[in-house]
């Protein structure tokens, strides 16, 4: 049996023409933002990729098929659907085999993108090492996927709800290049800086593309994490967002939220506690990441 890959007409045409393609994930649509902003944002992100000269490929599982690129109707359907599975490396195959529907996380989107020949992917923020991981062992599969699958992921750093020093340590242990774009500091999703220095810095999308190709030539598996700071006008300062994050984390603990539910719960609570401001920042940073990913993807096909 061959892999059930289904390309949208737009992505199929881009493949024929050898154009730059940028993968986009779907968990941010189903679990990361409320409707209707989720669908509106997904459309705007796709438009941003096109405006920057590449072709967007939003990835999701529908009726047991890996969709590489969604039509507008499919996007709307997914954005309104309730109870969609959040798929990572561990449950992707089971969902496909049973003919199910699922949204792909960073890890699962990387896997599908790679199978579809796409090497650049834009998202909001990757999963990472959760606070208290020394007890819960909650470390996102996104980190190990970056070590295994050759896709360059553009994110605004890791979400500040995580333990960022431990996240950087795990990435380093697994040999994942963490490249801050245009600054020295590792960004913290809603804020431009985490107060931590990023291991690497690059200011040129072409260099980021060249580094990914060089990894392949070295015979090293895995991708790269490009940490792109949120635009200054959209950021929430660290001293403003931190107390909100603390409050959300305490609620999650009191309610016994665990495993896959943690990240969606925290994002929703932070949205409520900031009266929607965190969502505005999240949208701005994803659009910004889409632009940079398109520039990297264009350099990749040269
Ligand atoms: N970025 C966002 N919003 C999100 C996510 C990323 O701006 O909802 C999702 C991604 O799909 C990421 C997932 O892979 O959160 C991480 O979940 P976990 O911590 O359970 O691994
Ligand atoms: Mn987790």
Kindly summarize this structure in a few lines:
The chain is built from 13 helices and 13 strands. It has helices at residues 9-17, 27-32, 37-51, 72-80, 92-97, 106-115, 133-136, 141-148, 164-173, 205-217, 238-254, 262-273, 277-300, and strands at residues 5-7, 21-24, 55-62, 65-68, 85-87, 102-104, 120-122, 152-155, 178-181, 185-188, 191-197, 200-202, 224-227.
Overview of the molecule:
By secondary structure, the chain is α/β, with parallel strands linked by helices. It has 2 domains: 1-118, Indigoidine synthase domain (Indigoidine synthase fold, 3-Layer(aba) Sandwich), CATH 3.40.1790.10; 125-302, 3-Layer(aba) Sandwich (Indigoidine synthase fold). Helices cover 47% and strands 18% of the residues. It has 13 helices and 13 strands. It has helices spanning 9-17, 27-32, 37-51, 72-80, 92-97, 106-115, 133-136, 141-148, 164-173, 205-217, 238-254, 262-273, 277-300, and strands at residues 5-7, 21-24, 55-62, 65-68, 85-87, 102-104, 120-122, 152-155, 178-181, 185-188, 191-197, 200-202, 224-227. Strands 1, 2, 3, 4, 5, 6, 7, 8, 9, 12 and 13 form an 11-stranded mixed beta sheet that branches. It has a two-stranded antiparallel sheet with strand order 10-11. Strand 3 and strand 4 form a beta hairpin. Helix 3 packs antiparallel against helix 4 (72-80) and helix 11 (238-254) packs across helix 12 (262-273). The longest helix is centred in the C-terminal third of the chain and has 24 residues, at 277-300. It is globular. It starts with a strand and ends with a helix.
């Amino acid at each position: 049996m061959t892999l059930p890959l289904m390309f949208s007409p737009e992505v199929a045409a881009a493949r024929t023409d050898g154009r730059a393609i940028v993968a986009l994930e779907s968990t941010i649509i189903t679990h990361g933002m409320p409707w209707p902003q989720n669908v509106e944002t997904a459309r705007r992100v796709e438009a941003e990729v096109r405006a920057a000269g590449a072709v967007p490929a939003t990835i999701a599982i529908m009726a047991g098929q890996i969709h590489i690129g969604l039509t507008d109707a499919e996007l709307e359907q997914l954005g309104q659907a309730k109870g969609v599975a959040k798929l990572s490396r561990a449950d992707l195959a089971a969902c496909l085999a049973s003919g199910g529907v699922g949204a792909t996380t960073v890890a699962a989107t990387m896997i599908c993108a790679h199978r579809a020949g796409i090497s650049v992917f834009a998202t909001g923020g990757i999963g990472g090492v959760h606070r208290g991981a020394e007890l819960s062992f909650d470390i996102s599969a996104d980190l190990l996927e970056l070590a295994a699958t050759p896709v360059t992921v553009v994110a605004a750093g890791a979400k500040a709800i995580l333990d960022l020093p431990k996240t950087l340590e795990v990435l380093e242990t697994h040999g994942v290049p963490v490249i801050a774009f245009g600054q020295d500091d590792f960004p913290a999703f809603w804020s431009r800086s985490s107060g931590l220095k990023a291991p690497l810095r690059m200011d040129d999308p072409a260099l980021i593309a060249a580094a990914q190709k060089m990894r392949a030539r070295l015979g090293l598996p895995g991708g790269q994490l490009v940490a792109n700071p949120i635009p200054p006008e959209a950021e929430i300062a660290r001293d403003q967002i931190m107390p909100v994050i603390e409050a959300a984390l305490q609620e999650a603990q009191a309610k016994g939220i665990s495993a896959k539910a943690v990240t969606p719960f925290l994002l929703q609570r932070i949205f409520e506690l900031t009266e929607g401001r965190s969502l505005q920042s999240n949208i701005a940073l994803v659009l910004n990441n889409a632009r940079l990913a398109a520039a990297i993807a264009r350099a990749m096909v040269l």
